[in-house]
Amino acid sequence: MSARIPPLDPASTTGPVRETFDATQAKIGMVPNLYRVMGHSPAALGAYLALNQQLAGGVLGAPLREKIALAVSQRNACGYCLSAHTAIARMAGVDPDGIAAARDARAQDPREAAALTLAAKLVDARGWVSDTELAELRKAGLSDADLIEVVAVVAALTFSNYVNHLARTPIDFPLAPNLPSER
Question: What is the CA radius of gyration of the chain?
């Protein structure tokens, strides 16, 4: 399927978007198509990047954030984010079995399993978590900071998943296995 909102050409952008694209290119060697699509709204791109930058300094750690990204993207059937976060999870040290488990919202570690369970519940139940479920998550080792950060990661991923669905963002990462069908 072709893109419905075309990715911007970094060479023809100006101002803050150009600065963001140049910084991204220098940092990771590319400007992902997701950023190039979000660049149509400098405010949306800036908000997305700022949220992710703040979460990078949070309590969850990169491997767990990537596992949450995979669980959310699987539930939201976002092939772009599944491919991107599979690659990023590998760079964060998550092995192929851990990646596959995360897509199913599973993990061996009880705290990680609780975080993935929460992420899946937030997507599936639109944020509603019962008192009993919350008590179980805390019993498994999630602090209040963990709980709030899981919500923030889910929010960031839901935003990027939905942008990709709307735009039909072309995937510019190695394709993850068993991608869901696009609608």
Answer: 16
